[in-house]
Amino acid sequence: MKDDFTEKRSEPRSIIDQYHSVEFSLRDCAFTYQFKIWDISSKGICVLVKEDSDLLNYLKVGDVSELKYYTNNALKPIEYLKTEIRHITKDEKGRFKGLYLVG
User: What mean pLDDT comes out for the span 21-39?
Assistant: First the structure.
């Protein structure tokens, strides 16, 4: 059977399935937050944050932090990567209404 699958996403996937979650442990924030990675593209990742999450008080677009990424590779389960917050977007009407997409 011929494989007729065509990728419909706007950006190619190059690191898909490499990471499954990311941990935010930020200076001045008393808590550590771990999120499942929702979307990975060649330009970055996206996590979903509830609109009432205290974490949003500690994040700003342009912030750069060293975050802890959990991989799907048993030989290297954790990686620390310097990560820049490029957008904090509230989904007003879509699939994730009431959540912020942070990427």
Answer: 91
Q: How far is CA 7 from CA 2, 78, 93, in A?
A: 15, 29, 25
Which tokens in the block code for residue 49?
């944050």
pTM across the whole model:
0.77
Q: Which residues contact 84 (CB under 8 A, 6 or more apart)?
A: 62, 63, 64
Residue 44 φ/ψ region, left for φ over 0, alpha for ψ in the -120 to 50 degree band, beta for the rest: left
Give CA–CA dist 70/98, Å, rounded.
Answer: 26
Domain ranges in the chain are 19-102
Measure the CA dihedral 63/85/90/17, to 10°: -150
Let me know: does 64 contact 51? Beta carbons within 8 Å.
no
User: Sign of dihedral through CA atoms 88, 18, 65, 9?
Assistant: negative
